[in-house]
Design goal:
5-stranded mixed β-sheet, elongated, Alpha/beta knot, 2 domains, Ribosomal Protein L25, Chain P, 7 helices
Length: about 250
């Protein structure tokens, strides 16, 4: 007996759309997304497409009209609601473009709720393009079947970040100086510091002495070591996020 194929097929393309989705809604798709569906995927009328909007969840839609440069999708049913996201922020000094884009991509894949670029004295980059970071995160979410996107905060000076820090949120401060002095590892600190959290990662040259002192003086700050090896900035951010997710995030569930 021939098995009934799964519907929608796992190979159905997934797209993020800015328009809030609901059953019965009709969407006109143009531009790069239409090019992808029409010319790359070569979808015909009746083909399935998965859509998500970062608000309500993921929906099944079908192609109901197809032109040369656009197509119309009609939303049929909710496949799954928007996923729950752990209350974790990644605060990181900007680094070179390709590596910061890579970090933004991995932050989305790992389930970060909020991504905060932080301007520090030794940062080699002093401008961040939010639209490029968002585009990178959208591509990651489409490929990894996420239904939620991280919020991207505007580039924030370190002193402003500390002054406006949210009460009740731990600020785990990755300090490479701690390992040799016997400081707590992030895994050890998490055993006694639960709840909403953020990790702060410095630039390639590290924090200055004045910045280090200012962070340590903040009541929410928890200085931690990320091990015996000096890590590149993006590696430190990814590693710290993975440790938190394993200990207190949705990996620990």
């Amino acid at each position: 007996m021939t098995a009934t194929p799964a519907w929608p097929p796992r190979s159905a393309p997934r797209l993020f759309v800015e328009t809030p989705l609901a059953e019965g809604a009709s969407l006109r798709i143009e531009g790069n997304q239409a090019h992808y569906l029409v010319n790359v995927m070569r979808l015909a009328e009746g083909a399935a497409v998965k859509l998500f909007d970062d608000v309500s969840g993921e929906y099944l839609a079908r192609v109901t009209a197809r032109g040369k440069r656009d197509l119309t999708l009609t939303v049929e049913s909710l496949l799954r609601p928007r996923e729950a996201v752990p209350d974790f922020w990644l605060c990181a000094a900007p680094i070179k473009k390709a590596r910061f884009d890579f970090l933004a991509e991995k932050a989305c894949e790992l389930g970060v709720a909020r991504f905060v670029p932080v301007l520090t004295d030794r940062a080699v980059v002093d401008k961040v393009k939010d639209d490029r970071l968002r585009g990178t995160m959208i591509e990651a979410a489409e490929q990894c079947e996420r239904t939620a996107l991280p919020e991207i905060a505007p580039l924030t000076k370190l002193d402003s970040l500390l002054k406006g820090w949210e009460p009740g949120r731990h600020l785990f401060f990755a300090d490479e100086r701690l390992h040799d002095s016997g400081g707590l590892s992030l895994a050890q600190a998490l055993a006694t510091h639960g709840g909403p959290a953020a990790v702060l990662i410095g630039p390639e040259g590290g924090f200055t002495d004045a910045e280090n002192a200012a962070i340590r003086a903040h009541p929410a700050a928890v200085p931690v070591s990320l091990g015996p090896r000096i890590l590149r900035a993006e590696t430190a951010a990814i590693a710290a996020t993975a440790v938190w997710m394993a200990a207190q995030g949705d990996w620990a569930a």
